[in-house]
Write a structure and sequence with these properties.
InterPro entries: NAD(P)-bd_dom_sf, NmrA-like, NmrA/Isoflavone_reductase-like. The protein folds into two domains: 12-142 and 176-205, 3-Layer(aba) Sandwich (Rossmann fold); 146-175 and 208-267 and 284-297, UDP-galactose 4-epimerase, domain 1 (Alpha-Beta Complex). α3 packs parallel to α4. The strands form four sheets. It has a five-stranded parallel β-sheet with strand order 3-2-1-4-5, sandwiched between helices. The chain is globular. The longest helix has 14 residues, at 82-95. By secondary structure, the protein is an alpha/beta fold. Helix content is 34%, strand content 16%.
């Protein structure tokens, strides 16, 4: 790790991507005392909290990106289009950015292989691109977002009292809401005292709640004792076949892949105890629990 002074290391942050996850970041970054700039594409009509600067960029134009990143200490990317992230990485290096937070925000990614779903290939590529660009990196791993996972597409049809699970459903999973991910990341950047070495990224392993699929079902049952939830256990091999059938449907294969890898243990951000959780870096974090999310989401049932 590099040495640091008593002054804040990260003062200015650029956020690339203000959609599904990124929308939660501007308020948290500003609230943490960071001068925040949001990079938007032409024609964007999104509004942001007071104090947030907005710069329109063209991700196909290196000069546009380099100009927008002038004077920026850290970039947080929450982009779905990972080709745009590749250009952003190059521009960040040329602009003198100190730290890059790539679009991770999910399962551990450093052990991904060609056997994993092609939707995740960009994460592996980004690690190589950051190394080549000579940029220090911070990876944020938080497991699935409970508020976007408890839906029929991922097997949770609580409205119709049906849940389908690949495998036993007993594997612990790390669950963290998008807001809590943004809160922790912003706090960490504001309090950062040193930079990781190039090629050896720092990793935030944060977890709001640890619970298996069956734990989630039990929590729902406790909240709604009059609802009779039927749980269907599907063979894990069936899920694996569905995950491989990319040609038959990219999104359905990705959803099947996620359900399978979570059941196989890849949703635990401490990687089966091989590493420590980062929650202790901010004891006051107090993230929302799975129970609280379920209570809000199913209040009308």
């Amino acid at each position: 790790m590099s040495s640091s002074s008593s002054l804040p290391l990260i003062k200015t942050v650029a956020l690339a991507g203000a959609g599904n996850l990124g929308a939660f970041f501007p308020e948290q970054l500003v609230g943490a005392g960071l001068e925040t700039t949001v990079l938007t594409r032409a024609g964007s009509t999104k509004s942001f909290p007071a104090g947030v600067k907005v710069k329109e960029v063209d991700y196909s134009s290196p000069s546009s990106l380099e100009s927008a990143l002038a004077g920026i200490d850290a970039v947080v990317a929450t982009l779905m289009a990972l080709d745009a992230q590749a250009e952003l990485i190059k521009a960040a290096a040329k602009a003198g950015v100190k730290l890059f937070v790539p679009s991770e925000f999910g399962n551990p990614s450093t052990e991904l292989t060609d056997d994993d779903h092609p939707a995740l290939a960009g994460k592996r590529t980004a690690h190589d691109q950051l190394n080549e660009a000579g940029l220090p990196a911070l990876l944020v791993w938080n497991g699935p977002f409970p508020e976007t996972t408890f839906n029929p597409y991922l097997g949770f049809d609580f409205a119709n009292e049906k849940v389908s699970i690949y495998g036993s459903g007993r594997t612990p999973i790390s669950w963290t809401t998008r807001l809590d991910v943004a809160r922790f990341t912003a706090h960490h950047l504001a309090s950062l005292a040193s930079l990781p070495a190039v090629g050896d990224p720092s990793i935030l392993r944060i977890e709001g709640t640890r619970a298996s699929f069956l734990d989630v079902v039990d929590t729902f049952r406790a909240l709604h004792p009059s609802r009779k939830v039927e749980v269907e256990h599907l063979p894990l091999e069936e899920g694996e076949r569905a995950a491989k059938d990319v040609a038959g449907g990219f999104v359905p294969s990705l959803l099947a892949y996620l359900r399978v890898v979570w059941e196989k243990g890849q949703g635990k951000v401490d990687q089966d105890g091989r590493a420590q959780l980062s929650n202790g870096l901010w004891p006051e974090w107090n993230p929302k629990t799975v129970e609280e999310v379920l209570k809000e989401q199913t209040a009308e049932l």
